[in-house]
Design a protein that fits this description.
Layout (H helix, E strand, L loop, with lengths): L26 H4 L25 E3 L8 E2 L2 E15 L1 E2 L4 E15 L8 E5 L3 E3 L4 E8 L3 E3 L4 E8 L3 E3 L5 E4 L22 E6 L9 E8 L12 E8 L4 E3 L4 E4 L3 E8 L5 E9 L7 E4 L10 E2 L4 E5 L4 E2 L4 E11 L6 E3 L4 E13 L12 E2 L2 E2 L8 E7 L4 E7 L4 E10 L8 E11 L2 E6 L17 E2 L4 E8 L21 E12 L12 E4 L6 E6 L5 E8 L15 E2 L3 E5 L2 E10 L7 E3 L4 E10 L16 E9 L20 E4 L4 E2 L13 E12 L18 H4 L4 E10 L1 E5 L2 E3 L5 E10 L4 E3 L7 E2 L15 E3 L6 E6 L7 E2 L4 E10 L2 E2 L4 E6 L24 E6 L16
Parallel strand pairs: 1-3, 2-4, 3-5, 5-6, 5-8, 6-8, 7-9, 8-10, 9-11, 10-12, 13-20, 23-32, 34-41, 43-49, 51-61
Antiparallel strand pairs: 13-14, 14-18, 15-17, 15-19, 16-18, 19-21, 22-24, 24-25, 24-30, 26-29, 26-31, 27-28, 27-30, 31-32, 33-35, 35-38, 36-37, 36-39, 39-40, 39-41, 42-44, 44-46, 44-47, 45-48, 48-49, 50-52, 52-53, 52-58, 54-57, 55-60, 56-58, 58-59, 60-61
Length: 877
């Protein structure tokens, strides 16, 4: 509340004029189709207070951070070349550069143009194969040449040109209303319905009168133009009347305080000569609690009356020690001098509702003076005796339990020696709520623990309701207003900023709110309900922060309100993307048990807007992603034989192209299979009931799960899985010949081992690991090799690996003495190194019948094997 003069009145200028405050342009005037330049000086102006983040450079080999969340990022220089850069995550990311260089760079090509605003303070020349999906504003000149293109919108403060045949802009003006320009322009042209002056009904010639000027957006001025407004003021009819501080005023937020002085009782007229934006209708004036009208803009100041100041205050907190003085103008000094000294006078007291007015206010709360409720109209005025001291001052106490702007009126009608004397005075004051209470409407939304142990509340991105109440003062040390007993139903304020604070998981993403502002309305219960949504998983507190001023007063900053813990918010659904399964043996479309096969996919936890919920991780990821496997739709899930998948990371389970997994064999010495019609799938067992979309499989049931609506997995790939092993045959022959050893890759066919005719993939390295006995490795030389003797095992063709063909393969053996074939006669026993999945429980060392080992066989040099059909041979001399 402005301070009023006492005894000697001194004018006080209350308006702050800012030459930099100009009406922001309309976005659609800047960004047009076709694009235009030459918008300076009425183009976009970058915010002046932005944190300097240095230079930002992206090239094919290096980019510091190319993913931006919504907000402002200010760089000195930007350079992008040789690749794709910058991705956004919803709402609008605003990048500011002093200078920007683009060379064969694609910017935000997978994002929405309304999600990226690029502001360049200097000049820009974009050429090459550069492609930009954004809104671009260049304060200087902008030139596009070569194959440079932009999709979205572009404008320049200087010239804007597209040269050559390929440089172009694909303009989509629908994005302008969707983008957040950070206040640099407004998406809708502001229109002032009319201006309205508000002042007391009893202005005095001996002091400056405080006048409130409102820029009204509608006829009853219930809505204000909050954008920047400039107005030229008028006061006419008397040369003794003037606006303190000058006749021009600039303001934003809907209203401002002015100071008006008139030292005579001559009739004067107030008005607005011109404004930006212009007003559609005539200026109105409101004197005290009277209805606004054009006629009220012609008024007179009085030479005597009551001067007092009721300070702006907190609702329900009394303002003590208010001095009331009956004054008259001193003709020589033009200042106020006391009229009542050392006397008691009976005064009539009443109050008026100004904002909200008597019609729209809902609580019927009354102003109290010295502890007594007073009337709400002059006809219902309350009479009180006021004692004026030797200085001509009387002291009163004023209170009002609700919020809003009120006017206290004093009136005196003389009698006796004061017969014929009529004096009046009034003062307005603003009563603030002490604070707001914000809480979820649904008690089930409260997450007391503030962690992942809370039950699921609702989906990320799904609407829920918040309760907002303005509360009256109870004590000075109060910080939790939700437990206050008295509300302020008459409180109404626009542009309350809604926010959120992430409680858990620690270090997670803050999420994007569906509604960032709301207008609090007068409500008989004092309660407003506001719909809200948060796009992330986790537990949050929700905040509400009123503007710094309330009804034009900055006496008190209503503190930001913060709710209790709300949540737990969960994903809306789980989605599988880009699955790929590669059988270990692609030609046969099979993999052996325990054999790694390729698997890549991307599993994502999404909100209702199909955005990844990055906080779905750790304890907040309630869905266990796992692979399932059934053979021939037999209802037996073999998924327990497949290793666990990686945990959720930033809302995703991603298996890269080099990832592999396998289906395990039975514990030793078990054998099973074949699984010749096996279907591999993926499921997510989410304890919150978040479903995997497009599920078409249930490995634990037979038949078509869609018929019974119990599909819980997505089928990935059909292939065969075999329990396999490698078998070797002994070989015999002359010591000076190459010996051929037969090998076979077998699989368990359900009752016996059989040759795997589908295997033309397996390969083995036959080289011997040693030339001496080694019981650990399974090598035996009987007899031992002599000096310069060596035994080799190798492949039949070129290379170092022997490969199976329809399940068969062969190894070649030879004995050498000093590089000459032959010379060694005896038995060489050796294993063949095969992959783990083709080992078997051979137990050739007799130590562990349940241990896997490589197959082994013997090559006999200098021994005739004979014929399989001959039972007994004897050499006859």
């Amino acid at each position: 509340m402005p301070k009023l003069c006492r005894l000697t009145c001194v004018s006080l200028t209350l308006i702050l004029l800012s030459p930099s405050l100009q009406a922001v342009p309309v976005c659609s005037d800047i960004f047009t189709d076709p694009p235009t330049g030459s918008h300076d000086p009425n183009g976009l102006v970058a915010p002046s207070e932005l944190k300097d983040l240095g230079a930002f450079s992206c090239n094919k080999k290096f980019c510091p951070d190319d993913s931006f969340s919504p907000g402002d990022y200010n760089f000195r220089d930007g350079s992008f070349s040789q690749g794709y850069y910058i991705s956004t995550s919803g709402a609008t990311t605003r990048l500011y550069f002093d200078n920007l260089t683009l060379n064969n760079a694609d910017i935000n090509t997978s994002g929405k143009p309304e999600n990226l605003l690029i502001f360049v303070r200097g000049n820009v020349h974009i050429s090459g194969q550069s492609s930009i999906n954004a809104i671009v504003y260049v304060a200087g000149t902008a030139t596009f040449s070569g194959h440079a293109s932009i999709s979205g919108a572009v404008a320049a403060g200087g010239s804007l040109t597209f040269s050559g045949n390929n440089a172009h802009a694909n303009v989509d003006l629908s994005i302008i209303d969707k983008a957040d320009f950070g206040g640099m322009c407004t998406n809708t042209a502001a229109v002032v319905d009319h201006f309205e002056f508000q002042l007391s009904a009893n202005p005095l010639t001996c002091k400056a009168e405080t006048v409130t000027l409102k820029a009204c957006a509608n006829g009853d001025c219930s809505s204000l133009i909050t954008d920047a407004v400039q107005a030229n003021l008028l006061v006419s009819g008397s040369s003794s009347a003037y606006w303190v501080g000058g006749n021009s005023v600039s303001f934003s937020g809907g209203s401002t305080s002015l100071s008006l002085r008139s030292t005579t009782t001559e009739s004067i007229t107030l008005g607005i000569t011109s404004s930006t934006p212009t007003a559609l209708n005539n200026t109105l004036c409101r004197l005290g609690a009277l209805a606004p009208s054009a006629a009220a803009c012609t008024l007179s100041f009085a030479d005597s009356g009551f001067v007092f100041e009721v300070p702006d205050k907190l609702a329900n907190k009394a303002a003590d020690g208010i001095k009331v003085m009956a004054v008259k103008k001193d003709d020589s000094s033009q200042s106020c001098e006391p009229a009542f000294v050392s006397t008691t006078k009976s005064l009539s007291l009443w109050s008026d509702y100004l904002d909200p007015n008597a019609t729209t206010q809902v609580s019927n709360a009354k102003v109290t003076v010295n502890g007594t409720a007073i009337g709400t109209s002059q006809a219902d005025a309350t009479v009180q005796n006021l004692n004026f001291d030797g200085a001509g001052e009387a002291t009163i106490q004023v209170n009002y339990p609700d919020a809003g702007q009120m006017q206290l009126n004093l009136s005196y009608s003389g009698s006796g020696e004061d017969a014929g004397l009529s004096m009046s005075g009034s003062d307005t004051f603003v009563s603030f709520p002490a604070g707001l209470c914000i809480a979820p409407e649904d008690p089930g939304a409260i997450c007391t623990a503030g962690d992942a142990s809370c039950p699921a509340y609702t989906q990320a991105g799904e609407s829920f309701n918040l309760k907002l109440q303005a509360m009256a003062w109870e004590s000075d040390d109060d910080s939790d207003y939700c437990d206050n007993k008295t509300t302020t139903p008459n409180y109404a304020q626009a542009n309350i900023v809604l926010g959120s604070e992430l409680v858990a998981p620690s270090g997670g993403e803050p999420g994007i709110l569906a509604n960032e502002k709301y207008n609090h309305q007068v409500a008989a219960s004092g309660l407003n309900i506001q719909s809200q949504a948060i796009g992330e998983v986790g537990v949050f507190k929700f905040t509400a922060e009123p503007p710094a001023t309330y009804l034009g007063s900055n006496f008190y900053t209503i503190p930001q309100a913060s709710s209790v813990n709300v949540g737990r918010f969960i994903p809306a659904r789980l989605e599988l993307q880009d699955p790929s399964v590669l059988a270990a043996c692609g030609t046969g479309n099979f993999s052996y048990l325990d054999q790694p096969f390729g698997l890549s996919l991307s599993l994502k936890a999404l909100n209702t807007k199909d955005e990844v919920t990055q906080n779905y991780r750790g304890e907040f990821a309630k869905g266990l992603a796992q692979l399932v496997l059934e053979n021939g739709n037999d209802g037996k899930d073999l998924g327990y034989r497949i290793a666990d998948l990686p945990s959720w990371d930033k809302g995703m389970v991603e298996l890269p192209l080099d990832f592999s997994t396998s289906v395990a064999r039975l514990p030793a010495p078990g054998v099973d299979g074949p699984f010749s019609a096996a279907m591999l799938g993926i499921k997510v067992a989410d304890t919150d009931g978040v479903e995997l979309t497009a599920a078409d499989m249930n490995a634990a049931t037979t038949g078509n799960c869609a018929d019974t609506d119990d599909c819980d997995a997505i089928a990935l790939s059909s292939q065969s899985y075999f329990h396999g092993r490698v078998v070797l045959d002994n070989t015999y022959g002359p010591e000076d010949q190459w010996l051929t050893m037969a090998g076979r890759v077998q699989y368990w066919n359900g009752s016996a081992w059989a040759l795997n005719l589908s295997d033309s993939c397996s390969s083995f390295a036959p080289a011997l690991a040693t030339q001496v006995d080694d019981t650990v490795l399974g090598y035996g030389f009987n007899p031992a090799l002599g000096v310069n003797q060596e035994v080799e095992r190798f492949v039949a063709g070129p290379g170092t690996m022997t490969e199976a063909a329809a399940g068969n393969f062969s190894l070649l053996w030879r004995a050498l003495t000093a590089d000459t074939l032959g010379g060694y006669t005896g038995q060489v026993t050796a294993p063949l190194e095969v992959p783990l999945w083709l080992q078997w429980y051979w137990n050739w060392n007799g130590l562990d019948a349940n241990a896997l080992s490589n197959p082994r066989a013997s090559a006999y040099f200098g021994r005739y094997r004979g014929h399989d059909k001959v039972i007994y041979w004897r050499e006859v001399y």
